Amino acid sequence: MEKLPLAKAFLLIEPGPVLWVTTRGADGRNNLMTATWHMVMAFGEAPRFALLTGPWNYSCQALLETRECVLAIPTVDLAHTVVDVGMCSGQETDKFERFGLTPRAAEQVTAPLVAECLGNIECRVVEHIARHDLFILDGVQAWHDPGRSERRTLHAVGDGRFVVDGETLDLRARMAAKIPPGV
């Protein structure tokens, strides 16, 4: 083992998959940001998620104003677009138009779904912990595209590198908890 600078410790446990967070601001403008710092807090019929973002992101203001968003799950075929979306600001750029992405109407929130994504989760902000730049989100509607041929997602390492999903190991029979079909 070699010592790793503590400032780089997050590289060892960086979460995934990379998400796009869509918002529609109070001004009616759609926006999209790339997010890698998030986590599942609860699952089942009342899914809950945490998302880390703050005033450095244009989307933060829309999250605070509207208290809703969509978590969209892009796949590996969108890797370059994932990075490019994250490298510009929605304050100056209509990212849907610039990157040829298709906004679709959501059912429970005004923020748009992203048609090109494997899945989308409509969410409402239930808490904002400003001290930590943390948003707690409740999922209110989920969507997936079962016909999408590319299903591999990206996982950020944190320094410009990404890991791509590979082989799936099905160990459900070995686990004590019953996992619902299709998960």
Write up this protein.
With 183 residues, the protein is mainly beta. The protein has one domain: Roll (Pnp Oxidase, Chain A), CATH 2.30.110.10. Helix content is 11%, strand content 33%. It has a 7-stranded antiparallel beta sheet with strand order 2-1-5-8-9-4-3. The N and C termini lie far apart (36 Å).
Please name the defining characteristics of this protein.
mainly beta, seven-stranded antiparallel sheet, 33% strand, Pnp Oxidase, Chain A, 3 helices, 183 residues, globular, two-stranded antiparallel sheet
User: Distance between termini?
Assistant: 36 Å
**Major sheet summary line:** 7 strands, antiparallel
Low-confidence stretches: none
CATH superfamily: Electron Transport, Fmn-binding Protein, Chain A
Question: Residue-averaged pLDDT, rounded?
Answer: 90
Keywords: Flavoprotein
Cofactor: FMN
Protein name: Flavin reductase
Pfam families: Flavin_Reduct
In brief:
This protein has 183 residues and is mainly beta.
Write the layout of secondary structure elements.
Layout: E1 19-24, E2 30-35, E3 38-42, E4 48-52, H1 58-66, E5 68-73, H2 79-86, H3 95-98, E6 103-104, E7 113-114, E8 119-129, E9 134-144, E10 154-156, E11 162-164
Antiparallel strand pairs: 1-2, 1-5, 3-4, 4-9, 5-8, 6-7, 8-9, 10-11
